[in-house]
Amino acid sequence: IAKEVAKLLEMKAQLGDEGKAKFVLKTPKGTRDYSPKQMAIRERVFSAIVTCFKRHGAEVIDTPVFELKETLTGKYGEDSKLIYDLKDQGGELLSLRYDLTVPFARYLAMNKITNIKRYHIAKVYRRDNPAMTRGRYREFYQCDFDIAGQFDPMIPDAECLKIVHEILSELQLGDFLIKVNDRRILDGMFAVCGVPDSKFRTICSSVDKLDKMPWEDVRSEMVGEKGLSPEAADRIGEYVRLHGGLDLIEQLLQDPTLSQNKLAKEGLGDMKLLFEYLTLFGITRQICFDLSLARGLDYYTGVIFEAVLVQQENEHVEEPVSVGSVAGGGRYDGLVGMFDPKGRKVPCVGVSIGIERIFSIMEQKVEASAEKIRTTETQVLVASAQKKLLEERLKLISELWDAGIKAEMLYKKNPKLLNQLQYCEDTGVPLVAIVGEQELKDGVVKLRVVATREEVDVRRENLAEEIKTRTSQS
Amino acid sequence: IAKEVAKLLEMKAQLGDEGKAKFVLKTPKGTRDYSPKQMAIRERVFSAIVTCFKRHGAEVIDTPVFELKETLTGKYGEDSKLIYDLKDQGGELLSLRYDLTVPFARYLAMNKITNIKRYHIAKVYRRDNPAMTRGRYREFYQCDFDIAGQFDPMIPDAECLKIVHEILSELQLGDFLIKVNDRRILDGMFAVCGVPDSKFRTICSSVDKLDKMPWEDVRSEMVGEKGLSPEAADRIGEYVRLHGGLDLIEQLLQDPTLSQNKLAKEGLGDMKLLFEYLTLFGITRQICFDLSLARGLDYYTGVIFEAVLVQQENEHVEEPVSVGSVAGGGRYDGLVGMFDPKGRKVPCVGVSIGIERIFSIMEQKVEASAEKIRTTETQVLVASAQKKLLEERLKLISELWDAGIKAEMLYKKNPKLLNQLQYCEDTGVPLVAIVGEQELKDGVVKLRVVATREEVDVRRENLAEEIKTRTSQS
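ok -> structure tokens follow
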């Protein structure tokens, strides 16, 4: 019995200990860590995007992760409730940035910049209820490219669409479609359909739901919740089912009601110009003028667009990730003026690439393929065949580091050669530099190629060069 | 009078408008934007650091910018009051990360990783009252390299110091000194000086102030505020003025009181081993064993170190930025265990490079030098010599982009050639591809070298290749 009691007490003590040390060991809701393997994929995606942004001559800026709360106030419409606020710990009231566009506009106004083409890649924060399986998070990266300045119409706008086209092609995510519309066309359409001015924004955000809800549901939201007349809703319904290319633009320019509206006419005129430029770029096949595209954010004033993946092309993937939009953007000519003390406007147009969804697809593709991703760039492992050679290994690896060679060694005094070779197999290190008593006497190092097991003696003073030559193509 | 009244009313209206649009146009206290020029310098610093981390075989990870509040609780000692909390908007209680070390430990415990060498470069947040002229901020980057795992003593520790040495040498910031100590030596010293166990941490944080306060002030804090006996304080005073190299370690190993303490003896033994390895690396000239080094954070358990710049070497800089420590780190063998449900320990040692102070110095150096920093990588501007060639420019630039050339054009229908050439002068674009009626007929493009004003006709199908060749060395 005494034995049993002791056992029970010990168990209890263990439980107590566990209770004490019990943390909820997790990342906050809607966030994630990136493991080295995931980082390797992420850096590939970033590299493709940054290369494209630089190809288009963009500079890069960075802004703080939080802004004064009032900087974000009144910029996002219905989405404002999703902003993360910081606790009031004395001092300024702060919020985490919700996108990179409003901080960019603040930056332009603050520094009186009227002309810039910049990119910005950083995390943004939204207190959404995300479906993480679909690659949506509360903390996620945006990769933004924007052109600010007073220019001739639609030239920068066309470049933004070209950029989306280049990036989505480069990443080989399968077929995609870029939907394009214009807020002026939407507003003109609302006007001719009989929507009162005061309801433009809220009806616009109903239209925005058409990619997730059938028309009937959107219609009842308009009529039921938002008090729109059924006739107006039906007229909207006629328009938002339209999509096409230059032909549709021409048709609407002839539309007896819509063409009477000044805003719509302006928007349609610019849309025609845009399609002409996109034709010169040779990318109209993936671009669709779509009257149902509305975009949620309040600040757009002209062209808006959104890129969606049409299907998963890769047949290795058994269950394709269902992804929504992977890029979006538009023109926001009024946002900078909201920050300028004198209301001076700086016209802007930009695109935002949503990396998380793209990343989910890339990750699945890599998982499904046989590709083995290396997470380090180590060129050589400094090893020893006998004991008591730690000092010699340290001396050699130090020489290699100083010569710019990427080198590792096992942190053991007397590692077994087999373990050292196994480490190379596991991590993909291509070469092993082996020091031994004899090699030290001869002033050489034995260089072993892991893949072929070939071994050659290399004079110590030539070792770095030899390693560089042998790893230069990889 | 009517005129005057109208004028006044207009002025009033303007004021009213201004009042309405009045924002405090700034970034939050202790934060900053990075302009394209500053980003160019920042990327240079990052590149040097990442290259070094990769040379040492590190993988890379990323973690969210905020953690559960309880993840950070009880890890930082007196510094905890500087943590930014997020507002409770329902759901989990969150805090912005204070460093990258605690999230790393959480990551290891959560994923049951017992063996990794990783780097992590990201922003951290401290509600400090920073002196921004000295390059200190509330939002700042840390560049961390850590080695986790059970290894033979001091081999990973020595590598961390080698890394600091490589990075500070590479960045050419002038002379630097890396101070080294060990928490076990400090604790042993406190014990033999008669400090009660319960006061170890708080006396340690007094010692930590010795780089900013004279000994007399630190002594009065110990005796006055913290209730240490004057005798104990004086005994500590004897030790903390000691600094040196292997000789001092040997001397202290012989010290009749200190060598009686088990912890101190262990620490001194390891310190001796560390210096032997650092001698093999050839870097002891910049390393100093300093008994006054304490480091603020609670979680260190063994070796600690801190790198300081000794003076500004660059004589072009009139008023040198006064900078404190630019790197620091140490061993924290207990931190991962605090997160593991069973308290399983994973020994860790790591280094953190503080980029902001380094960046301030680099920025001043660039300002003082004649160096002109380019903020884009554009290789060629697509220009036209006559009017009505917008379409032709769009076609050509699209061809160049698709061929991987970094190309820009002015967003104007009919830009003047002079303005286009001026743009290249201003931004450092080296080449101009000029389309004109005659060139179009001949199937060529006129390629102009901005620096020499040399112009050659290049066949259109060879243009991309020609641009690549001409810009390959830059």
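The longest strand of chain B covers residues 116-125.
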